[in-house]
Amino acid sequence: MRLDLITIVVDDYDRAIEFFTGPLGFDLVEDAPSLTNDGRPKRWVVVRPPGAETGILLARADGERQTAAVGDQVAGRVGFFLRVDDFDAAHARMSAAGVEFVTPPRTEPYGRVAVFLDLAGNRWDLLGPT
Questions:
Q1: For residue 72, which of 35, 66, 80, 81 sits 20 to 30 Å off, Cα-Cα?
Q2: What's the whole-model pTM score?
Q3: In the chain, how many domains are there?
């Protein structure tokens, strides 16, 4: 058993792909046409950190309720955790690429951490070894 995908609701597929594959350095694994449950066109878009098994399904918001969730996937909490081997290099690369960090790097018992926002405003932890 393994966790295959999680979903992040986005407002635009292409902007989301650009953010995840650019500043975050993820791989675009799938981008294929698909249909909603009621037959309208959509895309099946999956991104994944290099070498990772679990991916993120980028799902375009469909309707008012989903649109309201864009950027607030987990009610303002940090809900996503990106672990890297070289914290300082990843932090510097992401900062240079325009990723907004909302906390400075700090050391916790579980490692180095800094909170950043994705393109929609969801909060993520960048995590690395101490």
A1: 35
A2: 0.93
A3: 1
